[in-house]
């Protein structure tokens, strides 16, 4: 598997990572733990080295299965997880990035992940009640203790990124970015390039939208996060957005590629320090996603895709109102 370095951090990862959240929440049905462990170990056999999880996903369960799966190959892989939540008795009560909470969180994650260190530790959402300088100072302490090797931010705005990076160098930003959400190009990406910070787009396939598996008849279960997202929930938005998917699919098929391969190859072409983390539970989809690292789009291809994206604007918000309130701008 081809690899990339996240910015100037020196952290080398596979060009296409694996988001593990869907194994435990947001995208049902979910495999049982042993099925998930087997799948993750197969991913390593196929060349995957970059695995993304969080204490939040399934409230600890996702970290537990990732830890069990990767323990035998720990030195071969890069594990990213996240902190920043007030979790009590299995319930999330809100954001909490106080230093004492972070220190409890990292110890819990280390235990669940069956490891002595975390390769990349993200603040999952910016906590407005805790100055980012305090968070960065805590990260510096954890790095000096050897518990964390690199740290990052998720869904953070430009001002927060700059302030955090001054206190303790940020290795990567993880935020949504794809053909159907391009705002990072105008705000955060220039700052990431300036500071030498890597970019790890989550939902690089638009929460399944850019896989060709969604149509106007789809019904999402109550456990499915897309049930609350206006881009999917509103039928007019969905109908409009599917026009974009169909055009890109035709583009892909004319080049004997899948829609997902084109969407991921497009992301990889944007900057050399971008590493998307599509999620999947299927070995076939995993191989399809990983193969995007070997797809080369020429200048004419990229110009045609940009013209398509300009002609078919995406309708609807990417998050529910509740989730949008957690995004740092």
TrEMBL record:
GO terms for molecular function: oxidoreductase activity. One of its GO terms (cellular component) is cytoplasm. The lineage of its organism: Bacteria, Bacillati, Bacillota, Clostridia, Lachnospirales. It comes from the Bacteria. Residues 16-308 form the NADP-dependent oxidoreductase domain. This is NADP-dependent oxidoreductase domain-containing protein. The keyword Oxidoreductase applies. The keyword ATP-binding does not apply. Signal peptide: none annotated. Coiled coil: none annotated. SUPFAM superfamilies: NAD(P)-linked oxidoreductase. Keywords: Oxidoreductase. InterPro entries: AKR, Aldo-Keto_reductase, NAD(P)_OxRdtase_dom_sf, NADP_OxRdtase_dom. Pfam families: Aldo_ket_red (PF00248).
